[in-house]
Amino acid sequence: MSHxxxxxxxxxxxxxxxxxANGDLHIGHLRTYVGGDVYSRALERLGQETAFVSGSDMHxxxxxxxxxxxxxxxxxxxxxxxxxxxxxxxxxxxEFDNYGHTHDETNTELTQQLVRDLEAAGHVYEKxxxxxxxxxxxxxxxxxxxxxxxxxxxxxxxxxxxxxGCQRHLEPGEVEDPVSTVSGNPAEYRExxxxxxxxxxxxxxxxxFLDRLEGxxxxxxxxREWIEQGLQDWCIxxxxxxxxxxxxxxxxxxxxxxxxxxxxxxxxxxxxxxxIEYISSTKQYxxxxxxxxxxxxxxxxxxxxxxxxxxxxxxxxxHVIGRDIIQHHTIFxxxxxxxxxxxxxxxxxxxxxxxxxxxxxxxxxxxxVWADEYLDEGFHPDPLRYxxxxxxxxxxxxxxxxxxxxxxxxxxLVGTVGNFLYRSLLFAHRNYEDAPIADATGxxxxxxxxxxxxxxxxxxxxxxxxxxxxxxTDLARFGNEYIQRNEPWKLVDEEPDEAAQVIHDxxxxxxxxxxxxxxxxxxxxxxxxxxxxxxxxVHDATVDVAREEPAGDLAEPTELFEKVxxxxxxxxxxxxxxxxxxxxxDEEEPxxxxxxxxxxxxxxxxxDVDDDMNDxxxxxxxxxxxxxxxxxxxxxxxxxxxxxxxxxxxxEGADDLLRxxxxxxxxxxxxxxxxxxxxxxxxxxxxxVIVLANMEKAELFGVESNGMVLAAGEEADLxxxxxxxxxxxxVK
Length: 732
Prior knowledge:
Number of helices: 23
Number of domains: 4
Largest sheet: 6 strands, parallel
Strand content: 15-25%
Helix content: 40-55%
CATH superfamily of the largest domain: Isoleucyl-tRNA Synthetase, Domain 1
Mean pLDDT: 87
Shape: globular
């Protein structure tokens, strides 16, 4: 790994978190897969040797539970979903170089070998731990058979994760007040012997690793807290029949003494074999195309174990994941890699959640836009790719609604990009037919294309797929302005050479758009490439081709993007609302199966694909981020200051309002705040708060308020500072 700007001389591997083979895909899940595909294609546009790989996550408790309910084996159950995913991704132009699964022979062998290497290096040990046990059903309960309370934050916890609170990884035995999710019976803890990976030994390494890790900032910042709190060693085995067997070796101490657990009884924790699929899938790609096309060992083996002098430090590994699995990819996984002589990740791109019309996706309530449903409605995949890739920064939450989808498609794809391409190419075809129309692209346009290429290169190296899309729409916006400003239709008769130059320049812009927009809209750009009469495939064109003169025989163009009509949106909303209402009605009357099993809510039992390596949904009570943006210059106009409350008292006639005297360093101000019913008034003095100091003055119940105290949520959680910033300190 080089950490040089892309493209580098080392091979790159782009991966996406593995979808859990347990349920249908919806557009929330597609965000990371589209993001990974866009980023992989963009690297190739820069000339970077790249493999894009992933696979289905086949193991774990939810698969075993749902397979049993379906009356089939876990392998049959998971393979059915795996095959469906393998068919679905290409429908959205997500083209993996290899898409495998964790239960195949390659991943089984590599996983067991890597665990042997960990053991040989002294990083694995045995330990007696408390494992949840259902005394009524006489059954030990692996992670996802258990729910209860998080010992760290007190919120609901699900097996190996605090899913509703701090999102911390939880070891077996940590969940308090355990209950079986299968039977609903209260569980108890019993002692069992399991294997542990000594992650705590790698704390110093991981701290340094995070310092050099690239990608999104949330992938670097979130794990630092866990390291600072002290890493716990990681239990890597489970009492479960379905999974990869712990590799053969010496018997455990308990089995030698006649204990109840031996290695043959254990399977590896799903989070051991799941990320190893990244390596396995790359290896399978090499086996298919040959090492001369892509060498998996050159990419994945580093340091003293590097297999080539040309790539002694391995390749450029980029993981594209949902933010709920950051810990696994920035703590456990790099520790496993470095301990076994493999290449550490260069970058982790962790996406935000996706909501639907301001509410969280709910598979049990059928509140989702399913992947197949989107296609069945007759929509092309590329507009959805554009929406998911460019609607906010990658690590920010994104809200999907049919209205917002319509607006983005109609305004940007149809009104900006599509409008420029169609009007330019139609005018060129009708008046000139062949390109080049002029001898060379004009200086102004050539410089603007160069700028767009530079923007794309910067976007790739900043890991910003949104900026990649913006670079193209900005170029199309320039093209619209350029053709409007020069009005070639007025020049054709009186200044034919000038008209020809303008149209040649517009065709050159169209060619650049075809190349630079290919990562986001690959199918539409291939169609545009054909309309331009260019040779070969746009999928093989690097950014240098975007600068080349147009040279093809122009075909009569057709409009690339289709407008989404308002009545279509209304019909889609009605269909969704009707479906959700029907699902909620069904939920009010439990099925016979639920009564017999005593199982929990369907969201907990089925786990669906939301328990996978890419859980991109968000709780219902979290509002989506606004699509309306402000510039950095506008932000600088906000005068945010640290304040210290000197006094707080009620205001006569106002049930909720307090008169606060707040020290802002340079002066003390009176600020009216609605905190009376939400805070103990006597505790407020000496509390540090954040104040919007240049808020317009307002009079409330006869008291002039000179500023605004900032708080979060319905409970008015006062924003404060972590360190010792004093009154008057500017918040930047």
